[in-house]
Amino acid sequence: MKSPFLKLLGLFLLVAVIAIGVKIGVTNPFFSDTETSTNNALSVADSFDPNPGDVVINELMWMGSQGNAADEWIELRNMTGSTIDLSGWKVVNLATGPGGTITIPSGKSIPPNGFERGLDGF
Fold this sequence. Notes:
Layout: H1 4-23, E1 55-61, E2 73-78, E3 84-85, E4 90-91, E5 102-103, E6 109-110, E7 115-119
């Protein structure tokens, strides 16, 4: 049977070896972190199509105002945390005249959680 002194000495040596290994950066990982990758490519879309409910009609002025009967507009709201590009979107059955469709011009977008009000067809 080992004496308590030998057990204590063995424990001290074990702690000393671990401390020295940590101090000089010696480690023995359980998993290897070495990876090899060749000829990989990552493709991402410039923008993502919104999902239903991402853009909603927030407000609608369809009868004009006391000052002008033609003062009509529609306000869209972005319900997401990302900018949504409205370029080329169509609002159907909104305008008067043939087709009744308004196409939103290029460069129109709604900032995250923001609004865009279209006056006379955006």
